[in-house]
């Protein structure tokens, strides 16, 4: 895999064009996803290795992207720790037993590798299907983002309860985050042992935090996780919404790649990072709703800005929205793959 465009760019080596994959590529914007989804619940799909592999392969076969991402969810760690997780169409994820008290935190389990074995099984099936063609990215949620779902009991607009725990009960919050960090490091090592070729950590809701709170309650746990990974030749990507602000701090956790949201000029932020850290990003996903000439123009604008830079992986600044036209995503991938430095 070390000769693949994606792995080379992740390790800041020269490539003839930027590699492309897109967050949330294995999901709802593809009509073929719904053909599978209509037959099974979301968690059944995640927990049945053959089905997880089918969905992982959809964007590989239909779009020709340069890296696959495991079909799963960031909340499976919370479920394995004891969260009563369900996904309902139109509602999203729910934990029926939210974590709000010291007793709730104490009840969470941390030795949960057996409960996540189905992910290792899925990785093995996916690697057979990929047969060495492109790398497979494994992933997990960052502790603060996973904590926000456990404490709120589901999605939230303002993270009021999760932030209140940080502010009023910092000791308890640290115990909760520390438990999630332990599980997450073990879980990512389980994925590495099962055969993934790269790792991404998603801290999707970090932008809700002040600089001080991000430093104390998010960054230090991501740093702990990364320091525990059996990295070998496996690049580690750190993503957060808010990376246009937090990237210099994220770099201290020593990831190989930082995935950048769309609020910042990608070259400017890259120049502010230590040498040897690659960047991934950072097209505004809303561009994929626009006319094709706009899509092409904005991709070329980004690529011209990054011309001559080693260590650049094309991605969106956040995930593909479910109602983005499939045809536009396919077109974007074609434009990217035709480009040459
Ligand atoms: O990227 C991929 O295509 C791989 C599969 C994947 C990944 C990486 C899924 C499938 N989920 C995730 C990560 C994930 N899950 C994140 C981090 C990435 C991001 O920020 O976009 C988050 C925040 C979640 C939580 C989650 N799971 C939500 C978001 C709810 C909210 O608070 O806004 C939702 C809707 C889910 C369910 C889910 N996960 C994945 C899919 C395809 C779905 C939809 C399930 C369905 O069909 O109803």
Automatic annotation (TrEMBL):
Keywords: Cytoplasm, Decarboxylase, Lyase, Porphyrin biosynthesis. One of its GO terms (molecular function) is uroporphyrinogen decarboxylase activity. One of its GO terms (cellular component) is cytosol. The lineage of its organism: Bacteria, Pseudomonadati, Bacteroidota, Sphingobacteriia, Sphingobacteriales. It is found in: Cytoplasm. Residues 19-28, 137-153 form the Uroporphyrinogen decarboxylase (URO-D) domain. The keyword GTP-binding does not apply. Homodimer. Its main location: cytoplasm. Pathway: Porphyrin-containing compound metabolism; protoporphyrin-IX biosynthesis; coproporphyrinogen-III from 5-aminolevulinate: step 4/4. Substrate binds at residues 24-28, 73, 149, 204, 318. Catalyzes the decarboxylation of four acetate groups of uroporphyrinogen-III to yield coproporphyrinogen-III. It catalyses: uroporphyrinogen III + 4 H(+) = coproporphyrinogen III + 4 CO2. Its EC number is 4.1.1.37. The record marks 73 as: Transition state stabilizer. The gene is hemE. Pfam families: URO-D (PF01208). This is Uroporphyrinogen decarboxylase. PROSITE patterns: UROD_1, UROD_2. One of its GO terms (biological process) is protoporphyrinogen IX biosynthetic process. It comes from Mucilaginibacter conchicola. InterPro entries: UROD/MetE-like_sf, Uroporphyrinogen_deCO2ase_HemE, Uroporphyrinogen_deCOase. Belongs to the uroporphyrinogen decarboxylase family.
